[in-house]
What does this fold into?
Amino acid sequence: MSMETIKKLAENAAVQLETYPVISGKEKVKRIIKKNLLGQKIAPIDRYSWPNALLGEGLLEAFEVTFEKSYLDAVIKHLEQWKKDGLQIHYVDNLMNGSLALCIEELINGKAAEFYSESEKQRTVMLCQQITEKCADWVRKAKKTPDGVLAYRTQHASWLFADTVGMVCPFLCRYGIQKNDEQLLQLGILQIQNYLKYGMDRRTGLPYHGYDETNQIKYGIIGWGRACGWVMKGMAESILWIPSKMREKRQLKQAFWNMKDSVSKYQRRDGGFSWQVQAAEGPVDVSAGAMIGNALWAVSQKGETKQATLTTLEQLSDSFLISVTGGEVHNCSGECHGFAQYPQVYGSYPWGTGSVLRYLALKERLEADMRMSVSTAALNNSAKAVSALSAAEEDAADVPKEKNQNKQGKNKQKKERVPVELRENEKAESSMTDNDVNDGEKQDKKRKVTEKSEKSENKENIQTANGGGNEISDKPKKKPHHRKKRKPANKEAASVNNASETMEGNV
It folds into this structure.
């Protein structure tokens, strides 16, 4: 689905957030009769309950992917109106506004900071802090069950509903970590643990709608679609905030994936989930599918996505194609009124609009992050390859230099190892000038002439003395002139010279 679909859904969600619930004239008459004539206790008209909160979650996620300021403004305006109305908390449902406030505070101090002036940011942050503290204080003072958790309604103080896990636990765990409140963090964890212990069907791995804490009897049907959504939502969004060092996090993560596997077995051929997930041939419930999908996307933010999960999500996305038209979401089941009270009425409701909007926006944002991660990884790999190639080319270019340097070094080494006396003689000989050479030649010629003259005189004298006898040659034997080769000073020097020659040959 396109970004245009997300924007249309967000515009519709902003309108519903401001106007829901719409009380018709007929409904008003019914309420008057029940209260005044029949003396029945009727629920207050609550514009800050779970349907509005689901719309708010969708709008906040839409802002993160579109950066359309009006979506964030709509949720801020909603909370401002709640403050004007007294921040009344009737049920645990209202605690979901605490999660909205924590999220807005983070956005105002981060991604959305550029859209607001300093005074606007300060005012909004103060509003969010006031709301979160109001919700936290209410939880601290609320009456707990004997097991130490929150009941869904005070008139049935021992009844625990699946809805409570998704409505309360994400706020408790996030608040506990961000505000350093160990008590509320532990309460959020305990609320989940108890439901997993007492509220699940062991055979299918699916939740009942609720259970009675006094006797552990389970009520409602197994696998109600939105019960699966509420439990998975509460687990996934709480796991995000529980510190990794806590063993409870590992246990809850494992329980989450086990439940995911159990639910995925009943995914329909069209990719959606039925109002009761096992009822494969019953009506599809888009709100149930979107809540389950949001839980899967939530854990994906921390790199927990598995291939089977991506397949589930892709098929789920396809199922929304026939249910989303323009800015409306259809095929959503009506509001449940209690254990085993699931009206078979399907249409367009805020919990469907908000959940599907959040699903599509989460999908768009996280898939964009995944694509960016892949692109970044590819660029890094390319850069590494180019760097490695350049280094290889430089190494190849340096090989001749290194060989030449090695050869020069070895020649120098050889020269240094030649005996000192020989080097000095060679140096003396090589330093002889041309004038020195010419003077030496002249002296040699003059000496030879003198010697020849003297020999001639000696010859004549000998012949006179012998009376002309046999001649005795006066010519001395001429020895061949060879330059005397100096021997190394010792055997070690000789071996060094030989070794140096062998090394150069190898080079």
About this structure: The radius of gyration is 48 Å. The longest strand covers residues 159-161. The chain has one domain: 3-380.
